[in-house]
Amino acid sequence: MREYKPINVLFFLLLTCVILLPLVYFAPSNGYLIFGQRFKFLTWEKLLAPKEQEKLDLNFLEEVVVSDINDESFDTQLDSTQNELGLPTKSTVLAVASQTQLEQNEEAKKNLNAFFSELKNTTQKKEKISVFHYGDSQIEGDRMTAFIRQRLQSQFGGAGPGLIPAINVYSTISFGQEHSENFERKIIFGKEKLSTKKYGAMLSAATFKIDSMAHKNGTPTQAWIELTPSKKGYTRCKAFSNVNLFYTDCIDTCTLDIYENDVLIQQDSLLTDGKTHKLSIKFDKTPERLKLVFNSKISPTINGISLEGDVGIQMNNVAMRGSSGTQFSSVDYESISYMHKELNTKLVILQFGGNSIPFFKDSSAVRSYAKRLKRQIKFMKKCTPNAAIIVIGPSDMSQMQEGIYETFHFIPYCIEQMRKETLSVGGSYWDLYSAMGGKDSMYAWVENKLAGQDYVHFTTKGAKKASQMFYDAFIDAYNTWDQKIKTKQDTSIANE
Predict the structure, then answer these.
(1) Three-state SS sequence of the chain
(2) Same structural domain for residues 383 and 463?
(3) Of 53, 86, 99, 412, which is most buried, counting CB atoms within 10 Å of its CB?
(4) What is the total count of domains within the chain?
(5) Are residues 29 and 107 both part of a single domain?
(6) Residue 48, pLDDT score
(7) Shared-domain flag, residues 289 and 246
(8) Does residue 204 register a pLDDT over 60?
(9) Do 37 and 132 lie in a common domain?
């Protein structure tokens, strides 16, 4: 192997500089277009005065105090024959100030105020309402949703993690799940799809493989799902007294054996008309280990399992990794609308945009995306005609440009267009990007261990901070509505 002397290396570096310096000196800011490909070089101005990393001051976040919401005294084994599981904590105090606000027009205020009325009176009426939090990987594993759920359930009532996937593939703090190997996950936002498109409100479902030998012998195939309460989640998500199994496409006899701690407690069967249905199971206390065993020659489609209390709010986390939030209208309308009706959905939160931003080439692509999202909002309004809509925009996201981390170019314009289209259909908008600090804030969040090294996703600490800011804005809007109602009531009494 030939050895090079230091002088040879020096001459090589000098020759390289002689070749590259003219390219740098004369390089246009947008680079050279060669055979349809654009090649960019560091310009002479940037070589002499390189950009410095923007370091945003995050002192304003010190005023966002993340509430300690896991010290609530809540009996996860409450005997529901004596009292309703999910009653609110009387000592809980609502937030009174917020650094951010929900952006609304009059129609959006009207829609959200209708939800506030439902929210305030749910436990008094001994009813349950559902909130669906749909989002991309930013809410995966119940991040953000779990924090908001605990706050809302503590103050307005509710228990349990709500609707969970038939087959869960994400690490989560809110429930435990195992399943037989023959169960297969089907999702609208991935490769493994259902030909019927009957995904339901979770936009995912599961079927089990039929054993070929059993099928040949004319005997049913067995498959099972086992559920346990969370051991590390927030207090209220650990407790549930009602289990609702949603299914569809059952066209052959399918028996269901229900076990609690390995003891058979109930036997049932699914309806075989092929339509979407719900099978309900009631418990006096939270089961330590619940196992659902299916036996059938033809697999039904399992759309999800809801773990609920008796009264209050059920907040459902639907994480769609890689999704842009534009697949809702591809789901079979009957299956998704049925589940939302049965779960009494009164608020839908859509948190998307982050997966589209890296691929925007021009402003027209941004507008096209925002209009597609608008169509999805209109579809969700059709599926949940009495529900309010809140859109949470994308967070800041950074990419390496010329040695420093900078905000993706089209994020501000994307937010502008998402806000515009959301308001045009009566939805409320919350600007997560601005709440973080705006342009180049992600770098500061990473430096402060509030976001990960991918410069896209929050850490657990950062997710709590973002959740608290959203919750503060939400409760600020609630308090404004509530105060107006009280003022009207006081005025009415005074005039009598």
Answers:
(1) CCCCCHHHHHHHHHHHHHHHHHHHHHCCCCCEEECCEEECCCCHHHHHCCCCCCCCCCHHHHHCCCCCCCCCCCCCCCCCCCCCCCCCCCCCCCCCCCCCCCECCHHHHHHHHHHHHHHHHCCCCCCEEEEEEEECHHHHHHCCHHHHHHHHHHHHCCCCCEEECCCCCCCCCCEEEEECCCEEEEECCCCCCCCCCCCHHHCEEEEECCCHHHHHHCCCEEEEEEEEECCCCCHHHHCCCEEEEEEECCCCCEEEEEEECCEEEEEEECCCCCCCEEEEEECCCCCCCEEEEEEECCCCEEEEEEEECCCEEEEEEEECCCCCCCCHHHCCHHHHHHHHHHCCEEEEEEECCCCCHHHCCCHHHHHHHHHHHHHHHHHHHHHCCCCEEEEECCCCCEEEECCEEEECCCHHHHHHHHHHHHHHCCCEEECHHHHHCCCCHHHHHHHCCCECCCCCCECHHHHHHHHHHHHHHHHHHHHHHHHHHHHHHHHHHHHC
(2) yes
(3) 86
(4) 2
(5) no
(6) 55
(7) yes
(8) yes
(9) no
